[in-house]
Design goal:
The protein has 991 residues and is α+β, with helices and mostly antiparallel strands. Helix content is 63%, strand content 6%.
């Protein structure tokens, strides 16, 4: 008995890990204990895990094993952030969420602890390579039995125990038909597929680490059986990911010549499983779809010439681009309209008016669009409720169809980063192991786990694989075995923290961070509709043919001189149609391109990565960008800003390099300058900025060099002169008017007033505007006080310059350049009679660079005293600044979304009541809504918007401000329609 107790004492944890490797994949998900308010159950596997973990804790207390592993601290940090997120949700967010149940949040949190603690248990049991082999043998036996049971389901009707809905989760045995997707012992076919995506690359890699032929042969047949079972699951994402994972395995094993044959054989086997190929064929298919010309939205499918019912919610379409689109004849429109009224149960479609197009479209099935329109937006809503910590576990319902969206929604950016850090640290660990471990079996294990982990991470984009218990337990157990083996082989390996800091210095890290933040902030706004001036651009583009593009550069047609932007709208019309999301996506890319330019320019000027990253992040998310990025009418300004950054970067690169071939950078600066001028008039400050830069850097210090410097700048000024000659003398572009014009009498006051106005907006966002409007209104009535303040401001500047000269104060050139950038780029707009947020883009980069330099200076000063203190205070300051600006951006995004909805609602209110207007009718809109907060609705654009519905050039549409006068003017005119927007609805005055 004592020998047995000693043996158990020595091997109890190894037996426990082996039991988990065998029991968890094989035991069906039968319910044991019910959890209130959900159909998720506590199961027998939870008690088995608890027993093994309990034994592990006892052994830790007895100092028989150690919880210390390479990933212990990252895991503890992940648990800490998860607990903090849950606590925040329980205390502060609970009342805001109707679907949040506290005890479910606790259950989900404990599940995350349960999944990861088995990693620590498994890692602590590795004493030699023999134990690793025993574990993998058990895992292989479990995999073989899973395959056997799956084939039994397929061919012999063995029961399945699923958890895909509330009834199935009760443990009811189900007999799946042969055409169903197999689940084996798992809770669903997606879970089984994810498990196989992990196991196939693992054993495929081990195949190359085995010496005995019999083991190689057995492993080969195990891999083949696993792949066949994967085909029977019918999971498209898992099959696609399998091809990536197996190719990565062969690549890392230096068997590149096998990649193509293995992929071809895999595809050949897939072709024999009809269900799989059919599902792939339905992922994206081409069909005829009826489009409403007025909105560009698909409204019905065409099957064998018959108009089918209204397209279901969740059906997604990608319109195939056409060079020109023509509406069908009147008889065709009548047939379509009649068919729609017959087939559809929708009142909106039954009364639809206007013109229709039948177009070929790429249709993607509901499994994808359920994510796009259901689960992912729900997760993002939870994320935006608290971007740093999310809305707590269980706040996004049972699933999100993506482990990453789920992590963002439940635990925010901190939890998301903590979760990804686990894979990052394991990757560094594998990198160290592959460098030092010479055992073929050990290396094969690491390669297989690396490839399987990549496969699961890709699978997690569309499936909650890391939350599926059978997948999660097996994954973390195998990961713990791998980490324990590395720990055994390399007890004195290099610190992962040192490698982490080295990796964080990579140039790719800021780019990845900027990309992630940009996507999180702006991609949800792709669903915004058109508003205001957007319809002016779109109608103009729709009435222009491709062959007329060349005339844009010689004739402004009473418009602003922005021919390149106009060319863009004409060229993308066949591709984008009337889908606002496509235009918003292009604006997003332009803004992101400017952000990358801001990062590159800040890095080139400061040589400090922290300052450059902070400046770029501020530039990316500041709420003052909303008008420039979320309003399609600002595309031309975004294009010019993109060229502005590109041109300055090219010029600076040319200035800093003296080789002959670097003259290409100078040519690039000239080209981008010209393209920017053709996009928007804000580019005219470009030559002045280059002069300012050269002046700061001593280009004018030697008189002998003046000639060369002026020769360098002369082409830019010649291009500027040519631009004004072309703009005003040839094209006769639209000039300035109203408040957006210069008044010599008020020019000094406008210059100073607008400067402080923009500065205040950049500092405290739109909270500054009420104070600004109040003070500006007061000073307009008190010109003497305004004059005194203006003189005081001038004396302050003069005094600063005098003091600098007297005391020979040295000011950082980058600080001066940042301030000069802000002033020079704002020069065309400071003298105007009013402010507009779009005018400060991209001048505000100078302000953000100054703020980033200040934070960086503060960090470096405190770092000399205490590094942890410097890191902590800098982090707190950054969280405060970025948190404030992000909250303001969310408010601005909401306003722009609401503005688009109101603009669309007004057009639909007219079109749903009038199929057409008779000749002689006239439409009057009394005081249509102009703004929703700071977002534009209809400063202009109603006539152009209605043109897309009726295509009637003779229909008079007038915007008026006085209802009584309009009623008097139209008295007795029965053909006049008067519309008033009140209390959120467009109503017609009935007389």
């Amino acid at each position: 008995m004592q020998k047995l107790l000693n043996w158990l004492d020595k091997y109890v944890l190894a037996v426990g890990v082996g039991l988990l490797l065998l029991f968890i994949p094989l035991y069906p998900k039968l319910p044991l204990l019910d959890v209130l308010q959900t159909w998720v159950y506590i199961r027998l596997e939870d008690f088995v895990v608890a027993a093994v973990v309990g034994a592990w804790l006892v052994q830790i207390i007895r100092h028989r094993v150690s919880p210390k592993t390479p990933l212990t601290w990252p895991i503890l940090f992940y648990w800490f952030i998860g607990g903090l997120s849950l606590l925040f949700a329980l205390v502060f967010l609970r009342s805001q969420m109707t679907n949040f149940v506290p005890h479910l949040g606790l259950l989900h949190y404990f599940r995350r602890i349960e999944y990861l603690v088995v990693f620590l248990v498994a890692a602590s049991t590795i004493k030699d390579l023999g134990r690793v082999k025993h574990y993998l043998l058990i895992a292989g036996v479990a995999l073989a039995l899973v395959c056997l049971y799956g084939f039994g389901q397929k061919f012999f009707g063995w029961p399945a125990f699923l958890t895909m809905n509330e009834e199935f989760a009760k443990g009811i045995p189900l007999r799946l038909p042969p055409t169903a997707r197999m689940a084996s012992t798992f809770a669903g076919h997606y879970d089984l597929a994810a498990y196989l995506v992990l196991m196939i690359p693992l054993f495929a890699s081990l195949l190359f680490g085995l010496k005995k032929r019999v083991w190689q042969l057995a492993t080969f047949f195990l891999i083949l059986a696993s792949y066949l079972l994967l085909l029977f699951t019918g999971s498209r994402i898992s099959l696609a990911v399998y091809l990536v994972a197996i190719s990565l395995t062969l690549f890392l094993q230096k068997k590149k010549w096998l990649i193509l044959p293995v992929v071809l054989v895999s595809l050949l086997l897939m072709s024999y499983v009809s269900q799989t190929t059919e599902r792939f064929s339905k992922t994206f298919r081409v069909e005829d779809v009826v489009y409403d010309v007025r909105t560009g939205k698909p409204i019905a499918a065409v099957e064998q010439g018959v108009i089918e019912e209204e397209l279901p919610f969740g059906t997604g379409f990608i319109q195939i681009p056409l060079v020109e689109t023509e509406p069908p004849e009147a008889t065709q429109q009548a047939i379509i309209r009649k068919s729609l009224r017959t087939a559809s149960r929708s009142a909106e479609i039954a009364t639809i008016s206007g013109e229709f197009l039948i177009k070929r479209a790429i249709v993607y099935d509901i499994s994808f669009t359920t994510r796009f329109q259901g689960t992912w937006p729900r997760a993002l809503k939870a994320f935006y409720r608290n971007p740093l910590l999310g809305s707590g576990y269980s706040s996004v319902d049972v699933g999100s169809d993506s482990s990453y969206f789920r992590a963002l929604g439940e635990t925010g950016l901190l939890g998301f980063a903590a979760f990804l850090s686990l894979f990052f640290f394991f990757g560094l660990l594998v990198k160290q192991g592959l460098k030092k471990i010479t055992s073929p079996f050990g290396r094969s294990l690491l390669i297989g786990m690396a490839a399987g982990t990549v496969g699961l991470m890709l699978n997690a984009i569309l499936i909650d694989v890391f939350e599926a218990s059978k997948v999660a337990f097996n994954f973390w157990l195998l990961l713990g075995i791998s980490a324990g083996m590395i720990n055994h082989y390399l007890p004195k390996r290099q610190s992962l923290w040192k490698e982490t800091f080295a990796a964080l210095k990579s140039a790719w890290v800021p780019l990845v961070l900027l990309t992630v933040v940009a996507a999180l902030v702006f991609l949800p706004s792709l669903g915004n509709y058109f508003s205001g001036d957007d319809y002016v651009w779109l109608r103009w583009a729709y009435k222009t043919k491709i062959g007329e593009v060349g005339q844009f550069y010689l004739d402004a047609q009473g418009f602003f001189y922005r021919p390149l932007a106009k060319t863009y709208f004409v060229l993308v019309k066949p591709l984008f149609g009337l889908r606002p999301g496509a235009y918003h996506l292009m604006d997003f890319f332009l803004h992101f391109g400017c952000t990358l330019g801001a990062y590159g320019l800040a890095l080139k000027l400061t040589k400090k990565k922290l300052a450059a990253l902070l400046a770029a992040l501020l530039f990316l998310i500041h709420p003052i960008n909303a008008e420039s990025v979320l309003w399609i009418s600002s595309t031309s300004a975004l294009m010019a800003s993109f060229f502005y950054f590109g041109g300055v970067l090219a010029y600076l690169q040319w200035r800093q390099r003296k080789k002959d071939w670097q003259s290409l950078y100078y040519l690039a600066a000239l080209i981008t300058f010209a393209l920017g001028l053709l996009s928007h008039e804000r580019m005219i400050t470009f030559p002045l900025l280059l002069l300012f830069y050269d002046f700061l850097n001593g280009a004018f210090q030697r008189r002998k060099a003046w000639g060369q410097v002026l020769k360098t700048h002369l082409p830019f000024w010649l291009i500027t002169a040519g631009y004004f000659w072309l703009r005003n003398g040839i094209a006769h572009a639209h000039g300035l008017s109203g408040d957006y014009n210069y008044n010599l009498q008020h020019l000094p006051f406008n210059l100073v007033g607008n400067f402080f106005g923009y500065l205040g907006e950049l500092t405290v966002s739109f909270h500054f505007l009420p104070w600004y409007d109040l003070s500006r209104g007061f000073l307009r009535t008190q010109p003497s006080i305004a004059l005194v303040l203006l003189l005081a401001f001038g004396l302050f500047l003069a005094g600063g310059l005098f003091l600098k000269k007297q005391k020979n104060l040295k000011i950082n050139k980058t600080v001066v350049f940042a301030f000069g950038w802000f002033i020079i780029l704002l020069l065309p707009f400071l003298g105007l009679g009013n402010m507009a947020e779009r005018h400060v883009y991209p001048a505000h980069f100078g302000f953000f660079l100054l703020l980033a330099l200040f934070i960086n200076w503060l960090y470096e000063k405190i770092r000399k005293i205490n590094l942890p203190l410097a890191l902590g205070l800098t982090l707190i300051l950054c969280l405060f600044v970025f948190g404030f600006y992000q909250q303001e951006m969310e408010k601005a995004k909401k306003e722009w979304f609401q503005a688009g909805e109101i603009a669309n609602k007004i057009l639909l209110a007219v079109s749903s009541n009038y199929i057409e207007f008779a000749y002689g009718n006239s439409l009057y809109f009394v005081n249509p809504p102009m703004r929703q907060g700071r977002a534009w609705i209809y400063p202009v654009g109603i006539p152009e918007g209605l043109w897309f519905i009726y295509r009637d050039e003779t229909l008079p549409i007038k915007i008026v401000t006085n209802l009584e006068e309009t009623l008097e003017i139209t008295k007795g005119d029965i053909a006049a329609h008067i519309f008033v927007y009140e209390e959120g609805e467009l109503m017609e005055i009935k007389r």
